[in-house]
Design a protein that fits this description.
Elements lengths: L6 H25 L3 H4 L6 H4 L5 H11 E5 L10 H4 E5 L2
Antiparallel strand pairs: 1-2
């Protein structure tokens, strides 16, 4: 059996499937965001941040960056800012 689809038939199928494809892409994009960030990343984050407890703040920071505090060395005075290395991971 040889089935041939017309351009109009394919266009109709595409119109039917596009909303489902777009919804699946949106769900996939949301799942790529760590769960700790899903409810925090929003336009009013500055207002929302004070409502988080210390553990939630730490989880958010761990999801976004790696923080390394480098040793100062014996007998050396080093500005603490120069000892902190922050790498953004997202």
């Amino acid at each position: 059996m040889n089935v041939c689809l017309s351009p109009m038939g394919l266009a109709r199928m595409e119109r039917a499937y596009l909303p489902r494809i777009e919804a699946a892409e949106k769900r996939a994009a949301e799942l790529r965001i760590p769960s700790v960030l899903r409810h925090v990343v929003r336009p009013d984050i500055a207002r929302h941040w004070p409502t988080l407890d210390m553990n939630q703040e730490r989880e958010v920071l761990r999801a976004l960056m790696e923080i390394h505090v480098m040793p100062a060395g014996r007998g050396r005075r080093v500005d603490p800012v120069d000892r902190v290395n922050i790498t953004w991971v997202r």
